[in-house]
Amino acid sequence: MRKSAAPAELQRWSEEVAHDPGAPSFVPLADAYRRQGNRDAAVRVCLRGLERNPGNVEAHLLLARLYLENGDRERAHDEWGFALRLDADNFEAHRGVGFVHLDRGDFGIARRHLDRAAAARPDDPAVQEALLVLTDRLRGATAQSQAPAEGNARGQGQGRLASTVAALDPVKLFDPLRRETPFLGAVILDAHGLVLAGALSRDATGTDAEALGAILSGAIEEAARTADLLDLGAWRGIMLETEHAQLHITVLPDQFMVLLAADPGAPAGWVVRAAQRATELSRSFLQGGA
Description:
The protein is of the alpha+beta class. Helix content is 60%, strand content 10%.
């Protein structure tokens, strides 16, 4: 997972890219803009850099991620395709193309790419889940007229498909938790309170997620200082109760944090378990964007 860029690094990269848009530093500069929430600037830097340096695989992967975060899955697919022409074994590109074709119903193409992704990283949970979904969908396609029990299996497969493909769309990152009644939403916030993934309605908290993140960042710093002064060891999270919701905050490396909201009456044990699941999804998302 790439760390947040220091101001001196941003300045250096900006100067290098101003002098030469195709300089290697255009990729970390674009990624820094993305992490700051300035996706338009990140896309412009990527496109200008690729005009000068079209063989940069990391730039194609980053541009695919930016298009995906902007909701343009087709352009993301094209960029993954460019990356595969340059690096035929690229895990991220095979995974992305496989997910898109699985969503489209192009099962043969999806199988080829997901198998290649699984060969590169056998333990990747999103790929393994996608392969399970693919198996269910293929079974359903050949048994549409059979017993209702198999129809239920197909429904489960479609549910897993929605969950798996949601991993491609940052806004839908936490959709697997929406089946749980107390769940009101979750987001990943950076050190500045900017939302990187997930969704949290204003009704759940009484304010928007980024404003809430900016407020909570100070409270989290105080909690960390208190734990250190009292020699309580590393702390794992904070739970808050408000009139709108129960909130759980977990801090991740590089000053990212996960904010989960649940119904005010949700059991504390459920909130903690849901926060753990949201943290796992967040770590996977952030590592995938490294």
